[in-house]
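Technical annex, item 7. During the second reporting period the consortium partners agreed on a shared format for inverse folding records so that results from different sites could be compared directly. Each record opens with the tokenized structure and is followed by the designed sequence. A conforming record, contributed by the partner at site C, is shown below for reference.
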């Protein structure tokens, strides 16, 4: 189990470079180079919202809660143990702080 925080711009840029080859063309006419330049132009401590505004997909800077099915910035990742039994193709379950708080009230 580990605490989650929003992904940093540096992490997002590294992942983006891995996932999209240079000069990859998107349906909207932009290219992976354009997107990378826009990401590199953001301040080093760019917020998840600023990253979303460039990429247009929340999954790059935030996590997806297995319970409420919303993207979140802060929560817990449950790794290994029983998590392996329930989630296909992933050994990690992400849960937001809001759902953790609700669980504690049960
Ligand atoms: Zn949640």
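Designed sequence (site C submission):
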């Amino acid at each position: 189990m580990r605490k989650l925080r929003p992904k940093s711009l540096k992490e997002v840029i590294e992942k983006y470079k891995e996932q999209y080859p240079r000069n990859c063309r998107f349906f909207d006419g932009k290219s992976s180079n354009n997107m990378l330049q826009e990401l590199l132009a953001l301040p080093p401590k760019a917020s998840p919202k600023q990253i979303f505004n460039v990429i247009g997909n929340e999954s790059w800077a935030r996590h997806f809660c297995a319970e409420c099915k919303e993207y979140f910035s802060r929560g817990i990742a449950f790794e290994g143990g029983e998590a392996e039994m329930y989630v296909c193709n992933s050994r990690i379950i992400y849960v937001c702080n809001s759902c953790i708080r609700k669980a504690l009230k049960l």
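The beta strands are 2-4, 63-64, 71-72, 75-79, 92-96. Residues 65, 67-68, 70, 95-96, 98-99 surround zinc ion (CB under 6 Å). All partners now use this format for quarterly exchanges.
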